Known about the structure:
The protein has helices spanning about 40-45, 65-75, 85-95, 100-115, 130-145, 150-160, 165-170, 185-200, 205-215, 225-245, 270-290, and strands at about 15-20, 25-30, 35, 50-55, 80-85, 120, 175, 185, 250-255, 260-265. The chain is α+β, with helices and mostly antiparallel strands. Helix 3 packs across helix 4 (about 100-115), helix 5 (about 130-145) runs antiparallel to helix 8 and helix 10 packs across helix 11 (about 270-290). The N and C termini lie far apart (about 55 Å).
Amino acid sequence: xxxxxxxxxxxxxxxxxxxxxxxxxxxxxxxxxxxxxxxxxxxxxxxxxxxxxxxxxxxxxxxxxxxxxxxxxxxxxxxxxxxxxxxxxxxxxxxxxxxxxxxxxxxxxxxxxxxxxxxxxxxxxxxxxxxxxxxxxxxxxxxxxxxxxxxxxxxxxxxxxxxxxxxxxxxxxxxxxxxxxxxxxxxxxxxxxxxxxxxxxxxxxxxxxxxxxxxxxxxxxxxxxxxxxxxxxxxxxxxxxxxxxxxxxxxxxxxxxxxxxxxxxxxxxxxxxxxxxxxxxxxxxxxxxxxxxxxxx
Length: 297
């Protein structure tokens, strides 16, 4: 069987949605049903010889858990493949699918088998990441102990004399004063520079910087990822939609479990295009911060 993404397999395929609290929901197209299990280890013996598709962040919040799951898959001859987590939400929004664990399991199956989305083998995670732990402690201290003062000072030292590309100005700068009185930078900017400094001090390069910001599949606790994905990206998406005169699009649907009519978020093609462009610009802005961080003493 050849999938639209180019993969070839003779294995039966299932889709799995993992949750820290609710376990694993597995959609089996052969029975057109969803089964719930407390964990991947509990599910694996029921799907010997299968190919399992899930999100790349599955069992990544506790780093040691991924190894336990991979061992269970190996013992039961289960091939596990994953894709970027955001693909699930994008697919759900595009096709007006109401979110639930059961529907997400089916959605994950459809993404893996009906679209050209690239899949990668679900592999082991680093069980020890001393650099991430150092960065996490630095950012927590900066925000909660020093109220952001160290990161703001770092941003000013690095960027006050820098020429900030026009397309990044609104992302990085909170306020710009006249008569060369300087700038006030978004709080996330200094913290992303703290991440860059830590990565450079460790003798690592841009790829490690991106990994620490959470641009790659992981789910473990990371303040650096929050600064990049939430405080910059999500904020900029909302601002871009507002600038385009777009208000949040919703649709009334009935909850399949309760029968109660609820309002769900629906993303139009125009909104998805704006969101995609903003995400690319924020990633480019972070790369700019990495480049200027070489000036940090």
